[in-house]
Design brief:
Layout lengths: L1 H22 L15 H14 L6 E5 H7 L4 H7 L10 E2 L5 H8 L9 H5 L1 H8 L2 E3 L7 E3 L12 H4 E7 L10 E9 L4 H19 L3 H29 L5
Antiparallel strand pairs: 1-2, 3-4, 5-6
Helix pairs in contact: 1-10, 2-9, 3-4, 7-9
Amino acid sequence: MTKFKLFLPVALLAGFAAAPALAAGPGELPHAGVDLDDQASLQRGAKLYMNYCSGCHSLKYLRYSRMAEDLGLTEDQVQANLNFIGAKPGEQVNVAMAVEDGERFFGKMPPDLSVISRVRGSNWIAAYLKSFYLDETRPVGWNNTVFPNASMPNVLWEMQGLQHAEYGAADAGGERPVEKLVLAQAGTQTPEQFDQTVRDITAFLEYAGEPAALKRQKVGVWVVLFLAFFTFLAWLLKKEYWRDVH
C-alpha cells in the first residue's frame, strides 16, 4: 500500500500525458497535426489568418503585443505586417467591418474566433477549412461537409482550388448526401502545401485560444521532472526509515 501511494503521482502524470493519444478513435475527424512548439508554423499561421480571416473574424482576447512576444516577433514587425486596422500594439485584434455590414453580407456578424479551438477543437477547424465545395444553391456559392449551410465562403479557394461534391443515393427525405469531394480545378498550391497552410492557420487559432499554453508546456516538463525526482527522494527516505523494521 505504501509503494502504491508513493508512486501514484507519477502514474497519474503519465496517464494525463497519454490521454490525448488514447482519446482518438474510429470515425473521428482526421488529426490536424498541430505543433505549438513549431514557432515558424505559428508565424505563418498568424500571417495567413490576418490576411484571409481577420477582415471578418476578430480575436478579441488576443492583443497584438502579446502575439509579438509569444511568436518571436517584434512589435514593429507585427504593426507593419499583421495590423491592418491601425490599432495600437496593446489593443485587441478586432475587425474593421461594421456590425451592420456583417449582417448585410452574411445574415449576421461573423463570430469572434478567440476560443474556437477550445469549443470545436483543432481537428474540427482543419477539417472545416478543407471541406468547402461549390454549391450554386447557396447564396454564398459554397457549402461545407463539416458545417453544412455555413454562411462563410471559401476564402482559401485560390490556394486550395475548386472542389465539387459527388452525391450518393437520395434518402427517405429526398436529400442526397455528399459522399466525397473531388478537386475539379487545381489551386496555386499542391494538396500537400495546402494541408500545411491549413495546419498553420489551425495552429495559430489553437495558440490564440490559450496563449499561456506555450509557456505552460515548457514549464510542465520541468514540473514532471521535479515530481519524479521528489518521488525518488521520498522512496529513499522511506527505505531509510524502514531499514530496521522487520
